[in-house]
Specification:
By secondary structure, the protein is mostly beta strands. 0% of the residues lie in helices and 49% in strands.
Length: 124
């Protein structure tokens, strides 16, 4: 079975940093592009960042560009999201997802597997 497990969420003050991890199992990790999405309370899910299967290509939502960085370690079957200069509007449940399709997808329906999410709360 395929399983994606996020970790690293928590409470942080505005301007602080947090690193999320997503550990994958049950799939050939290096064959999947990986993405991060988030959903704030009462809001729709939105794309945050994605990385190609090789790690050579990345893509970010405008709202996080320059502050967040996605990376992956295929040897550890893990994708990371380094979040710096956090703002209260970054508060959301963050989900990682795996996409076997070509290229880098920014639309959630193209992803094949999803984690359970981890809560990130940024205080003023």
């Amino acid at each position: 079975q395929v399983q994606l497990v996020e970790s690293g969420g928590g409470l942080v003050q505005a301007g602080g940093s947090l690193r999320l991890s997503c550990a994958a199992s049950g799939l050939t990790f290096s064959s999947y592009a990986m993405g991060w999405f988030r959903q704030a309370a009462g809001k729709e899910r939105e794309f945050v960042a994605a990385i190609s299967w090789s790690g050579s290509d990345t893509y970010y939502a405008d709202s996080v560009k320059g502050r967040f960085s996605i990376s992956r370690d295929n040897a550890k079957n893990t994708v990371y999201l380094q979040m710096n200069s956090l703002k209260p509007e970054d508060t959301a449940v963050y989900y990682c997802a795996a996409d076997q399709g070509p290229g880098i997808a920014t639309i959630g329906r193209f992803y094949d597997y999803w984690g359970q999410g981890t809560q990130v709360t940024v205080s003023s």
